[in-house]
């Protein structure tokens, strides 16, 4: 027993154990929903629209996250197939969750008749808020941490409270609280997005690309500190490039987390982060130059199936038309 580790089980109902991991992920989804619902009201989108999106999106994200993780760890799961379903023990990948969520979103928005870019923009702050909260699930499970550090670094340099320091004590060794680094980075991103979406220069789709850029930038540098990165063996020049981009972190006293060279020399999340940043910047430039981003974030959202702004059709359905109004008279004496 090392330190005062938090119990990953919040409470039990008979033989059913409720894990903090699930509670935290549920809270993350709820906060994301509330943010989207509140912003959606500005454009006439009903809360039900986002609640249905959540009902489809969360399972899609969890499935995508788990498939992504298991695919890169298949050698560990192929002999224990039932462990594939034990997500309460951790082992989900954010990028896999994004793939699952966006695949679901594309289909859902098309069915509803709305532009993917317009709705995805509204959901961008929800995504980063959800990730900000969700990282605390890693904290409770003592996973996704960084390389070893001295206890004094956590207490005296970072000035962390005891309950975080104790949880970073894994089998007698203290580690970088990478969950905290990423959570704080996402918190800063959330504030930026909430301000940015009120700026008149913002075009449709650009808040989503800002999310990709901001999240990927932070994830690239935090990922380099971790010791459990999904990785693969790639070209030496690519590995050297990743290390060179990460090297400024050394000036702040950080060292890269250990990565077994026989397992891989390129961290998957770092490579994806770089590609997402490049693609997102390129998309912003291309869409502006080609006129594909003619709509602004604050423009009304049009349902391309009805040709009406969001919310107008619902109002028309709830308001009786003139020809259905019943007139009550005294009768005709003729």
TrEMBL record:
It comes from the Bacteria. Its main location: membrane. It is a multi-pass membrane protein. Pathway: Protein modification; lipoprotein biosynthesis (diacylglyceryl transfer). PROSITE patterns: LGT. GO terms for molecular function: phosphatidylglycerol-prolipoprotein diacylglyceryl transferase activity. One of its GO terms (biological process) is lipoprotein biosynthetic process. Residues 312-334 have a biased composition (Basic and acidic residues). Its EC number is 2.5.1.145. It is an enzyme of class 2 (transferase). It is found in: Cell membrane. Belongs to the Lgt family. PANTHER family: PHOSPHATIDYLGLYCEROL--PROLIPOPROTEIN DIACYLGLYCERYL TRANSFERASE, PROLIPOPROTEIN DIACYLGLYCERYL TRANSFERASE. Catalyzes the transfer of the diacylglyceryl group from phosphatidylglycerol to the sulfhydryl group of the N-terminal cysteine of a prolipoprotein, the first step in the formation of mature lipoproteins. This is Phosphatidylglycerol--prolipoprotein diacylglyceryl transferase. It comes from Paenibacillus sacheonensis. The lineage of its organism: Bacteria, Bacillati, Bacillota, Bacilli, Bacillales.
């Amino acid at each position: 027993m090392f330190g005062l580790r938090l119990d990953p089980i919040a409470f039990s109902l008979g033989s059913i154990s409720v894990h903090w991991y699930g509670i935290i992920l549920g809270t993350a989804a709820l906060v994301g929903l509330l943010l989207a619902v509140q912003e959606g009201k500005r454009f006439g989108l009903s809360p039900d629209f986002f609640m249905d999106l959540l009902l489809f999106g969360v399972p899609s994200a969890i499935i995508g996250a788990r498939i992504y993780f298991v695919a890169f760890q298949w050698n560990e799961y192929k002999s224990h197939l039932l462990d594939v379903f034990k997500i309460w023990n951790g082992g989900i990948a954010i990028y896999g969750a994004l793939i699952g969520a966006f695949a679901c979103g594309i289909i859902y928005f098309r069915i509803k008749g709305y532009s993917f870019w317009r709705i995805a923009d509204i959901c961008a702050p929800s995504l980063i808020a959800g990730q900000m909260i969700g990282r605390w699930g890693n904290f409770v499970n003592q996973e996704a941490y960084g390389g070893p550090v001295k206890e004094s670094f956590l207490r005296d340099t970072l000035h962390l409270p005891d309950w975080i320091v104790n949880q970073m004590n894994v089998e007698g060794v203290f580690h970088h609280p990478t969950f905290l680094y990423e959570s704080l980075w996402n918190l800063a991103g959330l504030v930026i997005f909430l301000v940015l979406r009120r700026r008149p220069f913002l075009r449709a789709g650009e808040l989503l690309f800002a999310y990709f850029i901001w999240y990927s930038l932070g994830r690239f540098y935090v990922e380099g500190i971790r010791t459990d990165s999904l990785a693969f063996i790639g070209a030496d020049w690519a590995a050297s490039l990743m290390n060179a981009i990460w090297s400024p972190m050394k000036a702040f006293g950080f060292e890269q987390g250990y990565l077994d060279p026989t397992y891989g020399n390129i961290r998957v999340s770092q490579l994806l982060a770089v590609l997402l940043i490049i693609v997102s910047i390129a998309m912003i430039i291309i869409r502006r130059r080609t006129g594909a981003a003619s709509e602004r974030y604050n423009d009304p959202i049009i349902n391309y199936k009805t040709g009406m702004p969001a919310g107008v059709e619902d109002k028309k359905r709830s308001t009786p038309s003139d020809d259905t109004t019943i007139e009550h008279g005294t009768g005709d004496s003729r």
